[in-house]
Amino acid sequence: MHEHAPAPLPSQRLTARQALAAVTDAYVELTEGGGEGSRGPGTPEAAHPSAAAPLPGAPGPGTPEHGPQDDGPLGWRGYGASRERARARTGEDESVITARGTIGGAEAIVLSFEFGFLGGSLGERTGDRLEAAYTEARERRLPLVSLIATGGSRMQEGMRALTQLQRVARQSALNRAAGLPQIAVLRDPTTGGGWATLGAGADVILALPKAQVGFAGSRVRPPDADPAAYSAEGQFAAGQVDAVVPADRLRATLQRWLRLLGGARGLPHDPAEPATAPDALGAADLPETGWDAVGRARDARRPRAESYLRAYFDDREEISGDRCGGRDPGIRCGFGHRDGRTIAFAAQCGTATRPAGFRTATRLVRLADRLGIPVLTLVDTPGAANDADAERAGAGAAIADTFAALASARVPVTSLLIGEGGSGGALALAAPDRLWATPDSYFSVIAPELAAAILKRDTHQVQETADQLRIRPQDLLELGVIREIVGRR
Q1: For domain 16-261, is the CATH number 3.40.50.300?
Q2: Quick one: where's region Disordered (predicted)?
Q3: What pTM does this model have?
């Protein structure tokens, strides 16, 4: 494959081939049988991607599966003619193009939907192409990138079209089980079953600004529905999308994600090397009293998660949201590059962690575990959010799931206590037997103030209570709670 000429930016209304060319260096189109057919722009075989001949015995671009009078499995009158008009208008014979391409030098299987072909709808032949592409990704052990623009299932094929969603879901599950990453790009529109399988089922979900995104398309929503809820920005706010990426930054963003996840080996494999604990960035000396430890950890001038992440990683990308309707800006999760390898991270930012934050961290740990990537957690919270909204959002269940994710992780997890260690909300992100601490941190079963209140002690006894709880880093080391106290380099 060779580099092709610069393509238009992948705005929402590009054709499938324009979108494909906008994000790839070069690509080779796949046939429905899973082999390779025509090549994308810049390759010597074809000036136009559909010009080269397909592999023997396999249908190629521009070769109709049915004649123009074939009205499909339901005998829907005029369906064959509609397909013929769509073919003439778009130059495509189906709603999706599948290809093996390179993005920033990283190989991937890429799917690109043609909305101009019957609204990018999924029919039986679409399912054939998608299944072959997923299979190709497994056989070559490549990540899969979907450039989605679809209104959902093709009603002219009825239930035969709808059941393609089960087919796609199974293929996605097989690639997930094989430890292969899936990245979705939501173009305009991404609705119906395409959103509920290829989109929402991906590991990383990127959306173009102002794209229409939702299970319900524009013509089937309640008349009083808030349109913002069906937008890329609304889905990001609701924790369903990881990032809204401007069109001129999409290609570079995909390059970074493939650099981070493209080499994932999945499990089982030889155990990954654990992430090293970061160096301390704050105070170098140890606190004299328990209350001193609390004061230093709560000091607004103490380095927080952002400082540690910036110092630790050469490059990083973040996921956002719990995929259950929530986001917590008080936790940062994602993948970063350090010393030539990828490490996943979940970092508390010093605020009370909300249920959505725990669920996002759980999602991160389980994705890293599936891809065989070691994990680093930074612990820093006064505790789990305890307001009524947090209880209604399932705080207990969210914390329990985070405990379970770390306890069952097959990849090594390294944890560093960088500030406040407030009870179970902090412990949920602390790796069992692999916890380090900085000199300006503390870890406590309960905040000293609350402990004094429960014990009905006067406020002047709070400091004494802090000492009794033995919460200083040196206390934690003596008690066997942490492995070491990290120093400054």
Answers
A1: no
A2: 27-93
A3: 0.90
